[in-house]
Amino acid sequence: MLLLPAFSAGAAVYQGKVVDTKGQPISYATVYPADDPVSGTATGTDGTFRFQTTASPNSAVVVSFIGYEKQVIMLNRLTATDPLTTIVLSEQPLALEETVIAAKASKQRNKRKQMATLLHQVYVQMSKDFTNQPARYHVVSDVRMDSEGEAWGMEQMIASIVVLPEGAKSGKDSVQFAGEHCKRYFQQDKRNLADTILAGDGLDRMNKDMRRAVNAIDSGVVVHKSLFAAGNIRYDFEQTSEDKLRRWSVSNESEGETVLTHIEKHNYLGIFVLQMTRNYILDSETLSVRRFSERADIKISIPFGMKLNADQLQLLNLLNRGDEEIEKFRLRKATATVSLNTFYQRKDGHLYTLEKNLRTDALLTGTKKAEIPVLVNATQRVVSLETSNVKPMTSRQMTRRVKREIVEIY
């Protein structure tokens, strides 16, 4: 069970268990009332959870885990007594695997002229679907790190996000982020490692200049904000030169949906190789975007290796999952796959973000076959959306350091 503070008076206690379709417990699944996400929690290693809230028993509770379809149940389905209410999550392969779908080009529809016409039609539809008015999102954002296939730590941030249209920026960032509450979940026996990687006591190991740089920003806010800001779905459609058109293909992946795929490759002297694959999943009839997925495959090869200096070694040790500290490291190769998926919701005739999923799987290889794996999973779900009377945030709102709460799971 979760180690929680003493329950406050007036708040009801709820508990349950989250499992997959095979009955296996899911740890680090998030459970929170939509009306009171701060009171939510994460499941322990046995899939159980327990939380308290003053939310109405008739309010919705969101149960989610990246790579699975979220469940929304009524709070009154949960009780504080045995037997535990069991919530089953089904896999959502689309959330992370759609980025690897390569659309098969049709010779007829992939002709340059027809492709240019289709891209223009989609771009016109985007102009109708995506409003030029500010919107305020309330989100729950989870960033989870894994080691050897097991999640050992997660940071959850509840935040408000204001998205400003291009014409209303006036020098302001188009995505404004203000963290409201942050929780860090980890297993008790891995707390030292979690504290180090999540910028806890790891700051004490950095030199003075590096500590000053890290303390100048709220690193957690940067990560969660970047997740929402990623994914520019209009850029590709603004590039319609003959060379750009060759990068497009189109296919029908399922009934009622058309998939437009854009592939872009870069090779810098064989040292840095990048392939970007972006899939636009459209309604075949209206050409409205239903989902968007993006995948970056990166390969870096340094012929003679790059010797890391003391500061770089300190940063590398924040990622090192071994017991021994790395004292020297020559980086020879690095491979990484970054997958991003965005789902949309429709409100008042326009499209707005509903959910974003991200997965980063990287491997750093040094001399003598020394390897450092890095695996990060993240999901960001919109709890509520406001589209009227939305005002830009103030600088004070966006720069305020977010209070963090430590929660151990067992």
Overview of the molecule:
- This protein is α+β, with helices and mostly antiparallel strands and 410 residues long.
- The protein has helices spanning 94-97, 112-129, 191-197, 208-215, 219-229, 242-245, 310-319, 395-399; strands at 12-20, 30-33, 41-42, 48-53, 60-64, 71-74, 85-89, 135-147, 150-163, 175-187, 248-254, 257-268, 272-283, 289-307, 330-347, 350-366, 371-386, 404-409.
- The strands form three sheets. An eleven-stranded mixed sheet has the order 11-12-13-14-15-16-17-8-9-10-18. It has a four-stranded antiparallel sheet with strand order 3-2-5-6, with no helix packed on it.
- β16 (350-366) and β17 form a beta hairpin.
- The radius of gyration is 23 Å and the shape is globular.
- The termini are close together.
Helix and strand composition category? alpha+beta
Strand content: 35-45%
Assembly category: single chain
The largest sheet is: 11 strands, mixed
Q: Order of strands in the sheet with the most strands? A: 11-12-13-14-15-16-17-8-9-10-18
Element-by-element helix/strand order:
EEEEEEEHHEEEHHHHEEEEHEEEHE
Helix content: 10-25%
Number of strands: 18
What is the CA–CA distance across the termini?
Answer: 6 Å
**Please, what is the average pLDDT?**
80
Unreliable runs: 1-7, 99-103, 168-172, 197-206, 210-217
Helical run tally: 8
How large is the radius of gyration?
Answer: 23 Å
Features:
alpha+beta, four-stranded antiparallel sheet, 410 residues, eleven-stranded mixed sheet, 18 strands, globular, 8 helices, disordered N terminus, 16% helix
